[in-house]
Design brief:
With 222 residues, this protein is an alpha/beta fold. It is built from ten helices and nine strands. The protein has a four-stranded parallel β-sheet with strand order 3-2-1-9. Strands 6-7-8 form a three-stranded parallel β-sheet, covered by helices on one side. The longest helix is centred in the last third of the chain and has 20 residues.
Length: 222
């Protein structure tokens, strides 16, 4: 049987995110240590990171991270509220765009540069509107309000959707989200712990990342 084709561009990036199963959502007080954070996460097996625009100096951090880590990591941008920010982040090196809300102009801008875009939604109508507008994945946020059962309910009548939860994902719930149909998981403070960053405890961060990778493996195996 012939080998499966290697996906590139938007499809390839999304496939890599789905294969990884984890997107580390990085919110920090400053940009100085973000390259170390991304590298420590990668060393633990989490090779997809989202640097949020709420972090001071986020664009500079994205540029430095993509320059240093290259193909070893996918570095994206989060908390994008408008197309201007999406474009600036893409020019800085962001490889995917994540937004907390649905903004059609953000989707158009990301696709103009052949970058995947993951807008946010909560209700079935918002989520389907995002999907129909061209979302590569839809971020259900804040997902902790309803839990993994909500994904089962959504995917029963709309199985074509690719959903990722942000909020309420930790080591205990990771497997539940995957079993409920999540394509990949957005994990913030449960993984990217500010106390570890402040202490520069990169070994502990790498160890925690490895635990999340194992949780995804176990969640997909059962």
């Amino acid at each position: 049987m012939a080998n499966a084709p290697i996906l590139t561009g938007r499809a390839g990036t999304v496939a890599r995110m789905e294969t990884s199963g984890l997107v580390a959502v990085i919110r920090a007080d400053g940009p100085d240590q973000l390259v170390d954070v991304c590298q420590s996460l990668r060393d633990g097996g989490v090779d997809v990171s989202e640097i949020t625009m709420t972090t001071p100096g986020a664009l500079d951090a994205i540029n430095k991270a993509t320059t240093k880590l290259g193909k070893d990591c996918l570095i994206g941008v989060g908390s994008v509220l408008d197309p201007e920010t999406a474009r600036a982040a893409i020019l800085a090196g962001a490889q995917f765009i994540v937004a907390p809300t649905l903004n059609l102009e953000v989707i158009a801008m990301a696709h103009r540069y052949s970058k995947p875009v993951i807008p946010g939604g909560m209700t079935p109508t918002e989520i389907m509107s995002a999907w129909q507008a061209g979302a590569d994945l839809v971020k259900v946020f804040p997902a902790n309000l309803f839990g993994p059962g909500y994904f089962r309910d959504l995917l029963a009548p709309m199985p074509q959707l690719k959903l990722t939860p942000t909020g309420g994902v930790d080591l205990k719930t990771a497997g539940d989200w995957l079993k409920a149909g999540a394509s990949c998981l957005g994990v913030g403070s449960a993984l990217v712990k500010k106390d570890l960053i402040k202490a520069r405890d990169w070994k502990a961060l790498t160890s925690l990342a490895a635990q999340f990778v194992e949780a995804v493996k176990q969640g997909r195996a059962t």
